[in-house]
Automatic annotation (TrEMBL):
Source domain of life: Bacteria
Name of the protein described by the UniProt record: DUF2786 domain-containing protein
Residue ranges occupied by any DUF2786 domain in the UniProt entry: 193-232
Ranges for domain DUF7168: 261-363
Stretches for region Disordered: 1-22
One family name in Pfam for this protein: DUF2786
Gene source species: Streptomyces palmae
Compositional bias of kind Basic residues: 1-10
Amino acid sequence: MGERGRRQRGQGRPDGQAGPDARELLERVLGAVRYAAEDALDDALDAGASALTAAEDQDAVGRALVAAAVADVRRCWEGGWLPADLVRMLRRERGADPVPFLVDMIAAEERDRAGRPGPGTGDERWAEQLRELEARIWWEGDGGYLAALAGRARAGRFETAGRVLDVLRVIHRLPRIPPVAPRTAHRPVGDHRMLGRIRALLAKAESTGFPEEAEALSAKAQELMARYSVDEALLGAARGAAGGEGPGACRIGVDAPYESAKALLLDAVAEANRCRAVWSSELGFSTVVGFEADLELVEMLYTSLLLQGTTAMNRAADRHHARGRSRRTRDFRESFLIAYAGRIRDRLTTATRQATEEAVRERAHGPGLDTAAEALPVLAAREVAVGEAAERMFPATTAHRLRGRDAAGWEQGEAAADRADLG
């Protein structure tokens, strides 16, 4: 009762705002944590957590903490980050435990900005990410947030305060990144039933244990993807320059281990679908630039092929390990995925070219297009537009060459790619 009574008396300010003492305390603590050297970080976090939990006016500290976190989140939005990017980065840096706090602060930023224009306004992708993160206000008031978070996590206030301060250090130190254009609800109207069929084929390919069936699904799914892409391009041309869409971008996480090989696979998928992928290795994602319909296909196909490739790699590595070659298992796995990505690139490029030529021949007499000779320049122009957009976003990029170091892994990776469903 004594502690609760002190907190109630400390609520103090009738305007519901954090008092100057709480704000000043938090500023000092955050300054020490944000700029501490790595070898002194644990001490800074402990000292900061002690100062916050010992403060007399806990409600004021809670309000000041939420306000500071909201400001940091908003700064990330202004620096080009999206909600999913921010959560993925924190999980990469600190694991899953601190993620709920960041999701809460994303929800608090949305609440405080309600009704005012800002990052994410009218962005369909932004809204989807918030739904997927389940970002919502669940606590009663910002003053009691820290205690509520500790109770929810079944942790002490000291431990919770230290974890929160560490999150604020991580997101405050993030660099600015090239922003991606909002994806509005006013998207080209194509045959969305085709996307449903593609997803169904991918799901079957991922679940089947029969290589022959997966290969048959592969051919059909890749054909549908190419036809869908061509349809969207020709519809865009029919609408004319005034109503046509331009290239957009999305970010796709590239997670450890074997990030280089996974980024190579994503680059192969993007290239085959008239997109460009730029890997930011230090940030854990690739930015894919392309037209909206093609971006959807790239994300679906990469996810499926990565799952298929990883499953095949694990099976092959288990057999490799069982033969007494455990010291080379990592080289085997990495070589497997590099070879898998290279072979997938060859297969996708060939399959996409053939399916596109057939689709153009069939659809060349659509609205505003009389011959295939008129249709092909539409596709070429889109590739040029994508290249120009990627160069504007990333004026300086570096190419990397990957080499496999295990012959057995390379051979089995190529074989797995030949069996893969090209979804």
